[in-house]
Design goal:
The structure is a homodimer of 176-residue chains.
Chain A lengths: L2 E8 L5 H13 L4 E6 L3 H14 L4 E4 L3 H10 L3 E11 H10 L4 E5 L6 H6 L2 E4 L7 H12 L14 E3 L8 E3 L2
Parallel strand pairs in A: 1-2, 1-5, 2-3, 4-5, 4-6
Antiparallel strand pairs in A: 7-8
């Protein structure tokens, strides 16, 4: 099962830090790729590339001119589309069904304003609580539930730096 | 069990959005209070107050001049202190023990630079993956694990707005 994240309507500078957090979560929690619409942001692309080179794994970042074409491509190749929104169905009620389908998944995370058509076109609108909080928090918990915690011990091949977990302090080994 | 979050070294403007996300996650995922050090940020305090008035529950936000005194107060009242860091012990290895203790918990989330003393003074250094990502993501998954998913259906009394979960679209009821 391939899992990608689509971030809508990124605004350069204004959203740079939030979108970076979102993409780092997407990478750390085991997705394969992020795609984003809105303004192209080479800073983020560069940062994600550097993080992946240093900390391992294969993770791709792509800019798309049109969310509708990204969504439709996904649906045409029999992938499932899941929009994270506080207005959707509670994750605890639907996650088993979503997990069971085994289809490739595109997880859509809103930006400034999410067009109403997104809600209608996707297969699932899913809420991680019905309270206002953070798309970063929502994506983290969604992926944690989707992968049933296995993402926590995911292996990132070819890392230059590897953390050795410590009770106190920091320990990092270099592999090159 | 009372659970609070301590955010270290907040920088006004630069960190405003990330810290806001962090505090909104703290509220939505069922903690009682956030305390922060660094620069005072009345925008965030105001936003959290408005969100709580609109969406219900009781949630407090406090500024502290010194993280050491906040930490020591907590420890003196027999509370447990947990620092979230990618260098710590994997959450999946320690969460059962942390959950079992039933002590009040202070969850410490770093800012720009975390002093080495934080690592030494706290009871736990816990990693939500050993990969670089986001303190917002780390806090979300930590709370989700601590509360075992019960936070997802937490009730927020006295809300003015309540979302009725929908398969497609948005539905909100007003209570006043």
């Amino acid at each position: 099962m391939e899992v990608s994240v689509l971030r809508l309507s990124h605004r350069y500078v204004r959203d740079t830090r939030t979108t970076t957090h979102l993409f780092l979560v997407a990478r750390a929690f085991g997705t394969d790729k992020v795609v984003y619409t809105g303004q192209r942001d080479k800073e983020i692309e560069e940062e994600l590339k550097e993080i992946t080179e240093t900390w391992g794994g294969s993770f791709k970042i792509e800019h798309s001119e049109s969310w509708t074409s990204t969504l439709k491509d996904w649906q045409n190749s029999d992938g499932e589309t899941i929009h994270l929104t506080m207005y959707g169905l509670p994750i605890q009620d639907v996650i088993n069904q979503i997990r069971a389908s085994k289809k490739n998944k595109l997880i859509i995370v809103g930006g400034a304003k999410v067009p109403g058509t997104v809600y209608r076109l996707v297969d699932w609108n899913v809420a991680v609580t019905s309270q206002p909080h953070s798309e970063v928090g929502a994506l983290s918990v969604f992926l944690h539930e989707l992968f049933e915690g296995r993402e926590l011990s995911k292996n990132f091949p070819n890392a230059k730096l590897i953390i050795i977990p410590q009770q106190k302090g920091k320990k990092v080994t270099k592999t090159d």
